[in-house]
Amino acid sequence: MEKNKSIGCIVSECKYHAQEQNYCTLDQIQVVKHEGHAESKQCTDCGSFELGRQ
Ligand code: SF4
Fold it and tell me: What is the top-level taxon of the source organism (predicted)?
């Protein structure tokens, strides 16, 4: 899959990760929060993550 140079990502466990380079291969991702009110980056996640090959 082609990397998206606008979306850097180090989550190599994700099936959309470009693997040899630290980019996402999706055209677009959804960034989400898992707290009612986000106050730090630890409160945010990639909502488009899907587990890839182990
Ligand atoms: S979907 Fe999210 S976690 Fe997965 S490679 Fe793309 S940016 Fe990273």
Answer: Bacteria
